[in-house]
Write a structure and sequence with these properties.
heterodimer; A: mainly alpha; B: mainly alpha
């Protein structure tokens, strides 16, 4: 009896970052009712403090290997994505506070929903159990649906929310159907049981089979399940052919929400996807049949990666709205990250994680720039940026650095990320040949240069007599810090690299 | 084997100082108030002058031209996890080009006086560009090389795009896209080499390539080294620019302001040729031997086609731009011939073209600043109001033409003789029958047409601008000013001095070129 209680307490203590976030979310809701402030910065501060506390606990827990309640895995891999989510959500909250167009009541719910989505991502990235994975994904999605439509009066925002719900519902259904097929074939929902790492299902009952056996018995069912599950993940990371929602939703949502979707939510999707495919196929001792299957999964992922980056970049070429362009660019970047996973190696996964870390700096910077200028000019078109370069150098020069980094040109962190993805693609799992994907990635960088440079050109090469925009010191400081880190980690990326490497503890 | 020759006498931080001085200068310029343009110009001048002094001292002092291998080496770990090192050093191939770089950047600062909308950012970018160029010439680690190679792109994009002519935006993005496409291929080749040989170090890669140590798989019927060769070749050929990758150059040149054209023609094109000699041919010598005749053919096409197109230009600057395409063809032809003479000629041609083309662009800049157009047919008789300018222009263009006694002559003559001696493509039967004739003999023959056409377009251009009846509109043109002479004169002096004493460059390159030839002609 005592032992059982101890176990529960232990499990709860392992979940302290999650519990901190839950408490934060509830405090925000409560204080919103008590303070009743129209534009409360205090609520935002509570959110940031809560997320910061969770982040500190995560850093402290680095190295812990445990399982809470037989469902939530506590490992460095999950820690990486949780920390990423915290860091990204803090910035999103800061963006809400800095958003000049965001002056309305119900701001408490805004923060509450952001923190809730973060909680969903926390569970999504840290479980071997597919049921909990779906629950986490749904929690994150539900919060995101409301966030996308947060500007109720705005037609575009409502449209974004509606589209997001429809697409999200559809793909969640597809994914759950895939999972049910997998369950039918293996008799378990636990990835470690499927991979053969665990002999007994910690929560299930009945007879469980490993994926190797299931592959022998019902290969068609497994193939269908894999495709459907990949479809569900593709929606979350906005990979082709499930990326169609992304541009409309990203464009219609309030910019801080777009930032959340493009950075935190996407990284969460990648975390879950990497855990799924990593444990099932990349782990070294998966057996001969699964190892052979690995190539086919790798090829499918490689095709999705190539398609995603090419479609994203080609569509971005034609955009006249900066926000929409960044939306397509983030689709293309999902394709880049997939390259590392498609290589089906541990080093490839590390490369993907490194790239996500790089993506954090440069993309948050780019969205911060967008937020500033849409606040100043009231528009999100490229046209409205004409000639602004020399007028607000504190904002625009960092933007040049972000764009160059997004293109993947040294000495920026985006380049070192791309370097490792190329590495991964050129040394994939035994028997695979992904040289073509490396070339595709390279050529896509050249395509992307054209539209990223169009922003630079509009800012610096064209002239206008628009008035000098009013400065916003916190945003300028934020952008300069991000730009500095983009360059610094581009030149000295060992810390990021070793963090990504030490976080890849899935496969041991 | 210590390929870098890192014995204590050979180590030096001089090259790092040289590379990073422009960066220090850039930071100083950033701290100056934008309103004080005079102080900014002086600072930029000082921080391009110190590297010039340092490089001159190295060239005539520290650098030992009798020693083979790299000198003034500095080497330490940069990113251990990926085996990336900060590794710099110079040999006889890079030393002259390093010197040329510092000369041209110093000249570019006073030449920038007439650039419209001149501002602080211009000099910041100019100094950043110098950092990139110097870095490429001293890098001995392919990763470092690539980083410096790419650092050059953004400053160049802005320098053309902000301070250029009416179609500057198009020219700037075209330059950027072409070069980045090449860079991406280079990056893939570099990673392939790294994965195969386990190192980024250029000397080590050369040693492995010589020993035939690359084991990568053949793909689509082409061997690993062939793939690497073509990827690297295209990357560098875009920069040279070799036919058919040359179309970005005329646009970039015509739109760029004068000092940027000077740097573009004088140094940036040389990076392509230098890259081939440093990072492509010696690493995959077998593939280079196999495809030498293709390179020779591309070189000759550039020589003849470039000259032919230059003949048809009515824009003064565009004519000089196409003459660059033509002259850089000699570099490719000389390298591909695989003879000692040809290689020396090619390496010297890089230096002499750097001087003469820079001088030509300065000459064009002088007349453009006065007339605000560059239509060759719109001038006439300018020799009357501007006699000193005429004299200097004539020297610059005759050096470019390759008149005996001028710098261009020596290098082109060496290249042609070297190409004619080439034994590439000689079959055993042909040699046995005494018919010592192969692809390169034909190519050399065709290249002579290019030389004749070069004389034609240059003389014709000089005639149209300076001779004939004076265009009344331009009768009151002031002769070349002291500032313009200050930029132009050093180059003209070098044009003549190197025409008479070419060994001031050749002697420096001799040891390195013969080392390189040993690697390239190595029958592996």
């Amino acid at each position: 009896m005592f032992a059982l209680q101890d176990l529960h307490l232990h499990g709860l203590s392992l979940l302290s970052p999650e519990l901190t976030l839950v408490a934060t979310a509830l405090v925000i809701l409560m204080m919103d009712l008590i303070w009743k402030e129209r534009d409360s910065w205090r609520l935002g501060a509570i959110g940031m403090i809560g997320l910061g506390a969770a982040a500190l606990q995560l850093i402290g827990a680095h190295g812990t290997q445990d399982t809470a309640f037989a469902l939530v895995a506590i490992d460095n891999f999950g820690g990486f994505f949780k920390l990423f989510t915290c860091a990204a959500t803090i910035v999103c909250i800061a963006f809400v506070m800095l958003d000049r167009r965001e002056r309305r009541h119900r701001i408490g719910e805004y923060y509450f929903l952001l923190v809730s989505a973060a909680i969903g991502i926390f569970f999504m990235v840290s479980t071997y159990n597919l049921l909990l994975l779906v629950l986490g994904l749904e929690l994150a999605s539900l919060a995101s649906y409301s966030l996308a439509g947060f500007h109720k009066g705005e037609k575009r925002s409502a449209e974004a929310s509606m589209k997001y719900v429809v697409f999200g519902g559809l793909s969640a259904g597809v994914m759950v159907f895939g999972i049910s097929l997998l369950y039918a074939a293996t008799g378990t929902l636990d990835l470690r049981v499927m991979s053969g790492a665990l002999a007994v299902d910690p929560v299930g009952e009945g007879v469980a089979r490993s994926l190797a056996i299931a592959l022998e018995q019902s290969p068609g069912m497994i193939a269908l399940a894999m495709i459907l599950i990949l479809g569900g993940f593709s929606y979350k990371i906005s990979a082709a052919p499930f990326h169609f929602w992304a541009p409309d939703v990203y464009e219609g949502s309030p910019t801080p929400v777009t930032t959340f979707l493009a950075v935190a939510s996407k990284a969460g999707g990648f975390g879950a996807l990497m855990r799924f495919f990593g444990v099932l196929f990349v782990a070294p001792d998966v057996g001969e049949l699964v190892a052979a299957y690995r190539h086919e999964i790798g090829m499918v992922l490689a095709l999705v990666a190539a398609l995603t980056m090419t479609l994203g970049n080609l569509a971005a070429l034609r955009q006249t709205s900066l926000k929409r362009m960044l939306a397509y660019s983030s689709v293309a970047h999902a394709g880049y990250v997939l390259v590392g996973i498609a290589a089906m190696t541990q080093a490839g996964m590390e490369a993907s994680m490194f790239y996500l870390a790089a993506y954090y700096f440069m993309n948050l910077g780019a969205f911060g720039f967008l937020l500033y200028f849409s606040g100043v000019t009231g528009r999100e078109t490229l046209e409205s940026l004409r000639g602004m370069g020399p007028k607000a150098p504190m904002i625009t020069v960092p933007m040049v650095i972000f764009l160059v980094s997004l293109t993947g040109i040294p000495p920026m962190v985006g380049f070192t990320g791309k370097l490792q993805l190329l590495y991964a693609a050129m040394s994939p799992a035994e028997g695979m040949q992904l040289g073509w994907l490396a070339v595709c990635l390279g050529l896509n960088s050249v395509i992307s240069l054209y539209y990223y440079m169009r922003v630079v050109r509009t800012l610096f090469l064209e002239e206008s007599d628009a008035p000098t925009p009013a400065p916003q010191l916190p945003m300028a400081v934020f952008l300069i810090v991000m730009a500095f880190l983009t360059v610094w980690y581009g030149l000295f990326f060992s810390p990021l690299l070793s963090w990504a490497k030490s976080s890849m503890d899935l496969l041991t | 084997m210590d390929l870098l020759n890192t014995n204590p006498d050979n180590l030096s931080t001089l090259l790092s100082w040289l590379t990073f001085l422009p960066l220090i200068g850039m930071c100083v310029v950033l701290l100056l108030p934008a309103s004080n343009l005079r102080a900014i110009k002086i600072t930029a001048g000082v921080f391009t002058f110190i590297p010039l002094v340092l490089a001159t001292q190295m060239y005539f002092g520290t650098f030992d031209k009798t020693v083979s291998g790299y000198q003034m080496v500095q080497h330490f770990e940069w990113i251990k996890a990926l085996g990336i090192n900060y590794s710099v050093g110079v040999d006889g191939l890079s030393m002259p080009l390093l010197w040329l770089t510092t000369i041209l950047f110093f000249i570019a600062v006073p030449a920038s006086e007439t650039v419209p909308r001149l501002s602080k950012a211009y000099f910041v970018l100019l100094l950043l560009l110098e950092l990139g160029v110097l870095g490429v010439f001293v890098s001995l680690d392919f990763f470092l090389f690539y980083v410096y190679w790419e650092i050059m792109l953004l400053p160049m994009y802005f320098l053309i795009g902000i301070w250029g002519g009416p179609q500057r935006e198009y020219a700037a993005i075209k330059f950027f896209l072409y070069t980045l496409a090449g860079s991406v291929l280079m990056l893939i080749a570099v990673i392939a080499l790294r994965l195969d040989a386990g190192t980024f170090s250029i000397p080590e890669l050369v040693a492995i390539g010589k020993a035939g140590g690359f084991t990568g798989p053949a793909l689509l019927g082409m061997s690993f080294t062939t793939w690497v060769f073509w990827f690297l070749f295209i990357a560098f050929a875009i920069k040279i620019p070799a036919f058919p990758f040359h179309t970005w150059l005329p646009d970039a040149h015509v739109q760029a302001p004068t000092p940027i054209s000077v740097i573009l023609a004088g140094i940036l094109l040389k990076l392509g040729g230098y890259g081939l000699l440093r990072g492509c041919f010696p690493i995959v010598p077998d593939a280079f031997q196999e495809f030498a005749y293709v390179l020779g053919l591309l070189g000759v096409i550039a020589i003849v086609y470039g000259a032919y197109v230059a003949l048809g230009q009515s824009d003064f600057k565009k004519m000089v731009a196409y003459s660059s395409v033509s002259h850089m063809g000699f570099v490719l032809l000389g390298m591909a011939a695989l003879t000692e003479w040809g290689m020396n000629g090619a390496a010297l041609q890089m230096f002499t073209h750097g001087i003469s083309s820079a001088a030509c662009f300065l000459v064009v800049g002088v007349v453009y600043d006065r007339a605000h157009h560059r239509d060759l047919n719109g001038f006439g008789g300018l020799a009357q109001p501007m006699p000193r300018y005429w004299a200097m222009a004539t020297i610059a263009f005759f050096a470019s033409l390759g008149l005996p006694g001028m710098a261009g002559f020596v290098s082109e003559a060496l290249t042609m003789v070297g190409a004619f001696q080439s034994q590439v493509g000689w079959t055993d039967e042909a040699i046995a029958s005494g018919w010592m004739w192969g692809p390169f003999q034909w190519l050399t023959l065709i290249a002579t047409i290019g030389i004749v056409m070069t004389a034609a377009y240059i003389l014709w251009a000089l005639q149209r601008v300076f001779l004939g009846t004076l265009n009344e509109k331009y009768a009151d043109f002031k002769d070349i000013s002291a500032r313009e002479v200050f930029s132009l004169a050093p180059l003209l002096v070098l044009c003549i001095v190197l025409g008479i004493f070419p060994w001031y460059i050749l002697d420096w390159m001799e040891v390195s070129v013969s080392d390189l030839m040993q690697i390239l002609t190595f029958a592996g």
